[in-house]
Write a structure and sequence with these properties.
It is built from one helix and five strands. Helices cover about 20% and strands about 45% of the residues. The chain is an alpha+beta fold. The N and C termini lie close together (about 5 Å). The strands form two sheets. It has a three-stranded antiparallel beta sheet, covered by helices on one side. The longest helix has 12 residues, at about 20-35. The chain is globular and about 25 Å long.
């Protein structure tokens, strides 16, 4: 299972759930649903992702 972030331009970022903590998953999903910060940052392994809300079409969880 994983989390899939679909971007408006048709690209996707798929992150295996095992590489994220439950807290990170909750933060990503809550961030997308809220009207807070326009950018979210999270780290998977050695890579930090900085994702802008305006570029994201949707987020699918448990795919």
């Amino acid at each position: 299972m994983s989390i899939k972030i679909n971007f408006i331009d048709g690209n996707s970022l798929i992150v295996p759930k095992a590489e994220l903590t439950q807290l990170q998953i909750q933060q990503i999903l809550q961030w997308f649903e809220s009207e807070g910060s326009p950018i979210i940052s999270f780290t998977v392994g050695d890579v930090t992702h900085n994702l802008p809300r305006h570029a994201i079409y949707n987020i699918l969880y448990d795919i």
